[in-house]
Amino acid sequence: MTSSTKSNANKPPQKLGSERLHGAIARDLGIAIVSGAHQPGAVLANEIEFSERLNVSRSAYREAVRILSAKGLVESRPRTGTRVLPMARWNLLDSDVLGWLFESEPSPAIIDGLFELRMIVEPAAAALAATRRSTEDLQLMRHSLEVMERMTLKTDEGQSADRDFHQAVLEATRNPPLISLASTIGAGVRWTTHYKQRKLRLPPDPMPEHWAVFTAIEASDADAARHAMEVLVDRALEQIAGL
Predict the structure, then answer these.
(1) Rounded mean pLDDT of the chain?
(2) CATH fold group of domain 106-241
(3) Any idea which architecture 3-93 has in CATH?
């Protein structure tokens, strides 16, 4: 656990509107929980103690706890208070929870699990996209890759374009359940990319693998699209595994 994580768990959020305030409280508490500052089974401060210590409203704290409860991080019960739940109960498909995990140092199990999920979902999605994509899908994919190539993954714009590409592939499947995974896959792409950029001084160029996926989808070659996406995800994992 880093010193910044410790301080975030105990400092008052900045003055914000009510919705942003309880969101900021939830974020700080969420980061403290997933980083281990609050261990499973620990009881969080009650709303009176918390609100007085950090000078925030009790309603803002209650709403923040409701957010964390919906994500599976805590459980509130009468007389026993708000208790931190084990990782097995966390909604690890939630984009906020993934982001909080990567605010500190995610465990190898989390990183490996994300890539296993991507390897299960994305190659199959690329194969479907190759047979179902429209001209508009291809235009969106191409534009995303052009922005990604121009801006590079060192910039927020390049990283956003990377997520847009992977989301466009999922949307091209025309499969609603698969498309519903877009936010999770996008968050996985975002945070693993951010982690890699943070750890590697000179990350390898990811564009050849991305263009190979696009070329196969454009050619309506499902087998080639599946293989190209497998290579893309596997190369990304290899780069992180060596960190």
Answers:
(1) 89
(2) Four Helix Bundle (Hemerythrin (Met), subunit A) (1.20.120)
(3) Orthogonal Bundle (1.10)
